[in-house]
Amino acid sequence: MRLSTILSLSAVGARTLAQSNTTGQLGDAVVVTNNPIGKEALAVLPKTPFFTSGSLEGNVKGSVKATTGAKGVGVDFEVAFSNLPKEGGPFIYHIHVNPVDASGNCTNTLAHLDPFIRGEDPVCDSTKPATCQVGDISGKYGKITSDPFRARVHDDFTAMSEGPGSYFLNRSIVVHFANKTRITCANFFTTPQNNASTTGSSSQYALTPTPTNSMTPVTAGVGALSVKSLAFLPVVVMVLVL
Ligand SMILES: *[C@@H]1O[C@H](CO)[C@@H](O)[C@H](O)[C@H]1NC(C)=O
Ligand SMILES: *[C@@H]1O[C@H](CO)[C@@H](O)[C@H](O)[C@H]1NC(C)=O
Ligand SMILES: *[C@@H]1O[C@H](CO)[C@@H](O)[C@H](O)[C@H]1NC(C)=O
Ligand SMILES: *[C@@H]1O[C@H](CO)[C@@H](O)[C@H](O)[C@H]1NC(C)=O
Ligand SMILES: *[C@@H]1O[C@H](CO)[C@@H](O)[C@H](O)[C@H]1NC(C)=O
Ligand SMILES: [Cu+2]
């Protein structure tokens, strides 16, 4: 073999090794294809922050709503945050392994949801979400870069039926400063299915009344909906122009 061939082969080998570190010890995250149709869960930030110094008045407001992805594949997340600290952004948010305890201590939510044992470093490459930690939502789909901030993102790798490690409805969401210090956190709880037996119920969010889930989610939900309906506006305008 010629030296140049050997050199280029070993370069390929080194690159493969380096790349293999950017995914989990158990490989890339697996696409979840069997999420229950119509499942819905919500995490609503509490009234008081975990991080109490700095410019924050009250707490960051907001919620993360999770609904089953089309055909049961993955999850659609609708996130809405506002009243963010004036300093220390862009803010990041993740699904953490443990739920928040009754004291609201975000430290005890432990690390990011990471069933494929990838670790935090190197940082998530958003062009290859399967190689990122399953819980690293802002790493995969974008940091919180405005106030208010709203986004609708789809994730293939999160599970809404119990069993796999990527199941997250028994876990929490944590919002951090850019330097990873935890600002606030909230648990997911499932909301009633969107079917005839439950529509119109006003007490639907009182399912798991923990101290950390006491804020009403209605504003966030309505806001996100109007963003969605605004998305149709350019289409309508285009049709009128034509
Ligand atoms: C990849 O992982 C190995 C073993 O864990 C480690 O020694 C090496 O430094 C890592 N390489 C990179 C580029 O992170
Ligand atoms: C992280 O950033 C925030 C906001 O700038 C600051 O208040 C906090 O002290 C920082 N934490 C660490 C560990 O540096
Ligand atoms: C939160 O929990 C951690 C770890 O148990 C502890 O060190 C810390 O003091 C707690 N923080 C607050 C504000 O209670
Ligand atoms: C959450 O559920 C998953 C899957 O059913 C399970 O493996 C995990 O231990 C649970 N975690 C907590 C904190 O309850
Ligand atoms: C609503 O959804 C729940 C949970 O899947 C199901 O048990 C119930 O039968 C449904 N009700 C109707 C009226 O479809
Ligand atoms: Cu986090």
UniProtKB/TrEMBL annotation:
Location(s), subcellular: Cell envelope; Secreted
Reaction(s) the record says it catalyses: 2 superoxide + 2 H(+) = H2O2 + O2
Signal sequence residues: 1-18
Cellular component, GO, one term: extracellular region
Molecular-function GO terms, alphabetical: metal ion binding; superoxide dismutase activity
EC main group: oxidoreductase
Annotated EC: 1.15.1.1
Keywords: Antioxidant, Secreted, Signal
Domain of life where this protein originates: Eukaryota
Keyword Secreted: yes
Family: Belongs to the Cu-Zn superoxide dismutase family.
Official protein name in the record: superoxide dismutase
